[in-house]
Amino acid sequence: MDSFSTLLRTASHEQHVEAENSTFMSDLLGGRLDLEAYARYTEQLWFVYAALETGADRLAADPVAGPFVRPELFRLSALERDLAHLRGTGWRAGLRALPATEAYAARVRECREQWPAGYIAHHYTRYLGDLSGGQIIRDRAERTWGFERRGDGVRFYTFEEVANPAAFKREYRELLDGVRADDLEKQRIVAECKRAFALNTAVFRALGEEFPLTA
Ligand code: HEM
């Protein structure tokens, strides 16, 4: 039987391709979006990471989700520095969640509070993605909008406390493979991972509608 980490990757593969090829992501990677669109996207991420990280320390003692709660991954303060750079010191006043973002954040909060194993699905979908494809997005953002390499504007993608991302990802997959869940619960985590990808794609769709290139 495939390991759980392989199962998660395989199960989400199709939706990963869909997310990568969403209009908003391909416009971003193609360098076709303006800075406003990038700032608006970064704001949406703030809501998602606030949901993932606020009170996550309470999960640290949980036997299932606890091993995944790693402060070196936390992105919220990096996002806040990026937003201060993108929007100025008053960034918080202009922060608005799109309805799709609100739905995503609400589901993450629900898992964080009530279903630690489900939280793992959201954790995996975001942090492993940020350590992987996120680096491609960072490179593109630096080149498109001229941010300092790994500096303000792209700190979200810069994991200063993860010295060796490849090794970190290997260890992370080992954590997944050792997750304390039975087969049925693992199936539920896989389903939640697919839901997490769908929630991401819905945010991209909403952003794509807000920033159509032909407008
Ligand atoms: C244009 C956008 C994207 C690009 C170019 C991209 C690219 C990649 C690449 C190249 C990998 C493989 C890295 C490796 O094997 O070490 C990867 C992995 C991953 N990506 Fe993405 N990605 C994008 C968007 C996303 C999005 C939107 C999500 C979810 C929110 C996501 C979630 C993941 C996850 C969870 C993995 C880890 C897969 C695993 O090994 O288990 N990616 N991505």
Describe this structure in words.
The chain is mainly α and 215 residues long. The protein has one domain (4-210): Heme Oxygenase, Chain A, CATH 1.20.910. The chain is 66% helix and 0% strand. The chain contains nine helices and no strands. The protein has helices at 4-20, 23-29, 35-53, 76-87, 99-114, 116-131, 133-145, 165-177, 183-210. Helix 3 packs antiparallel against helix 4 (76-87) and helix 3 runs antiparallel to helix 9. The longest helix is centred in the last third of the chain and has 28 residues, at 183-210. It is globular, with a radius of gyration of 17 Å. The site of protoporphyrin IX containing FE has 19 residues, from helix 1, helix 2, helix 6, helix 7 and helix 9.
CATH topology: Heme Oxygenase, Chain A
Spell out the CATH superfamily.
Answer: Heme oxygenase-like
Q: What is the typical, i.e. mean, pLDDT?
A: 97
Which percent bin holds the helix content?
A: 55-70%
Keywords: Heme, Iron, Metal-binding
Protein name: Heme oxygenase (Biliverdin-producing)
InterPro entries: Haem_Oase, Haem_Oase-like, Haem_Oase-like_multi-hlx
Organism: Streptomyces andamanensis
Task: Give short descriptive properties of this protein.
about 220 residues, mainly alpha, Heme Oxygenase, Chain A, 9 helices, about 65% helix, binds protoporphyrin IX containing FE, metal-binding, Haem_Oase-like, Haem_Oase, Haem_Oase-like_multi-hlx
SSE blueprint:
Elements: H1 4-20, H2 23-29, H3 35-53, H4 76-87, H5 99-114, H6 116-131, H7 133-145, H8 165-177, H9 183-210
Structure described in brief:
The chain has 215 residues and is an all-alpha fold.
